[in-house]
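EI: anyone free to look at a 486-residue chain?
SC: sure, send it
EI:
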Amino acid sequence: MTLARIIINNAKQRMLSTVLTSLSVAVGVALIIAILTIKLVSQERLRVGYSGFDLVVGAKGSPLQLVLNVVYNLDASPGNIPYSLYEELQKDERIKLVVPFAVGDNYKGFRIVGATDTFLTKFEPQQGQHFELASGRVFHFEEAELRKAMKDAAQRGTRNAERGEEKAIGGGKATPTVSRVHGKGDLVEENKGKEVRESVLGSEAALQTGLKLGDTFVATHGIQQNEEGEKHEDDPWTVVGILKPTGTPADRAMYINLDSFYEIKGHVIASKDEGGRMKDEAEAGSGKEKAKNGKKEEKDNDPEAGQLSSLALQTYGPFAVLGLLKEINNREDAQAAMPSAEIRKLLTIVGNVDRILVAQAVLIIIVSAIGTGLAMFNSMNDRRRDIAVMRALGARRGTIFSIMVGEAVLIAAIGGVAGVALGHLIIQLAAPAVQMAVGFTIPPWSFHEFEALVFAGVLVVGALAGIGPAVSAYRTDVATGLNPGV
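SC: here you go
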């Protein structure tokens, strides 16, 4: 009988002990695989982000919050910036591209982002990869219409403030009179004489909401799904395009032409009350309740008249980035942040948590290995006669030692293989939640180099656990083992 066959038979004879100790090892390995895989993929996705974002500009506050909100569609907007800053930066020769954003609404929990068509045609969701349409076309956008919408909104805000009223922005109609072609392969759309409220959906947003080309939807005020949130019933958008999957947060966004954002009835115009405090429509009006049952409607600091939520800048190099970063941060009405720098800070914080979780998983494996050794020690009384018989038949002490160590390694190997499979199963189960939370996917069954190292480490720990019982078996006296009465 071969050495391997003896080891396997020994494991089978103690099936319950083998299964329980292997299961303990599997749990530890699974946790390590799941944690490190999610960490590595998340880090890579966060580092990549959108390659076009050299700088993001927004209201004074937390730079990390600004980056998460603009680049990853997470967290709330820290505030708003003047539209005049966008016009000013458009003229800056250091800037290759500047794209404005306006946020504050959602549809079934998917964020609605007001943007220009430039974002969908010029920016890259990943390096070297542009947005591509699965169907339809890019929404119609005219810079002149945006300026007109901002001017009209500001004028309405001035009139309302003079009357002491706080009315929703609305009433304007965008009526572009030209035809546009948006990117390669996009359809030419005649928009003459039509009100333009168009949307392009990310792949995941389209899939989860069930919206298709030609469908219309109504936005809900706030950044999260809330049945009690104010719905802009009078301002539906028409889906004109659906993007191909990018594996980025863009998949979960719903993009609308920015000029139409300022035509929404219900977007507040701020004014001051008698005490000088800023108020909005949610605090004033004719007694209409914005939150019921004590629940407060969550908003995203949606822009007021003459304001934007944020800007994304693509520059002509690192020197331009550093110069703009300093200049904008010296302003009183805005701040700039480098996504790469802020994400490094975030990963440092998250990395500390990951290390704690991995350390806990390693401890589980170590405890499992100790349990394996103890289980083998406890079975030594039953094994003494078998060991003595093998010795009497000519087995060397080294062979007995190898059998005991091999059995411990076998248990560790079974746990390791099961743990790798269980770890990827955990990733598969967690992938939808990760996708919903941060907007990027984690391939559940893609394997990484570190997994081989984890498996090898488990085998080493198993071998170490078997050394103690092996030494005890090595020292077993043949005569004593063959005499049941001793």
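EI: The chain has two domains: 3-45+354-482, 55-337.
SC: 👍
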